[in-house]
Amino acid sequence: MQYTGSKYIGEYIDGRMEGKAEYILPTETRYVGDMKDGMFHGEGTLYFPSGSRYDAIWDKGLVIKGTYTFSDGLQYEPKNWHYCDSYDRRFYTEICNGLKPAGISQLTNMDPPRKIPKGCYDCGDGFYDPVTRIIKDYRNRYLRNADDDEHEWIVRTCRKGW
């Protein structure tokens, strides 16, 4: 663990991670569930820093069946998923809470939307500064540098903080 930056809280059998456990990755993603022979095995959930989660049944580290739930409670469906597409353009919070009166637009699923720092863009997983080309998460932690394609897409399509 000291080499990977991960943390394990759980049982060991013959020096291997096994039984009920919590495994915390350096990215702050957490796995809570069953381990066997040092791998995710059985029922377990990955909790992501964004607040989303992935509940799954694992077999020797591989997913057999799982369900992804976004931080707002929306569950992803791999087939016939019509969330925010050409069939139904409402955000999940609008589906749950209803539409706003005519003339009042809801710009994001979060209502009211996040305040975007001046000159930056909200690119979905954080704020993008086009001058430095750095994307930081909503807690102001570094995520990545944007390449030319991502920069162009963000500037063309994302909301800007004026």
From TrEMBL:
Show the SMART domains listed in the entry: MORN
Organism of derivation: Loxodonta africana (African elephant)
Identify the PANTHER family for this entry. Answer: MORN REPEAT-CONTAINING PROTEIN 5 (PTHR46437)
SUPFAM superfamilies given for it? Histone H3 K4-specific methyltransferase SET7/9 N-terminal domain
Its subcellular locations are: Cell projection, Cilium, Flagellum
The alphabetized UniProt keywords are: Cell projection, Cilium, Flagellum, Repeat
Question: Can you quote a single GO CC term?
Answer: sperm flagellum
> Would I find Repeat among this entry's keywords?
yes
Question: What InterPro entries has UniProt attached to this entry?
Answer: MORN, Morn5
The gene from which this protein is expressed is MORN5
Chief site of localization: other
How is this protein named in the record? MORN repeat-containing protein 5
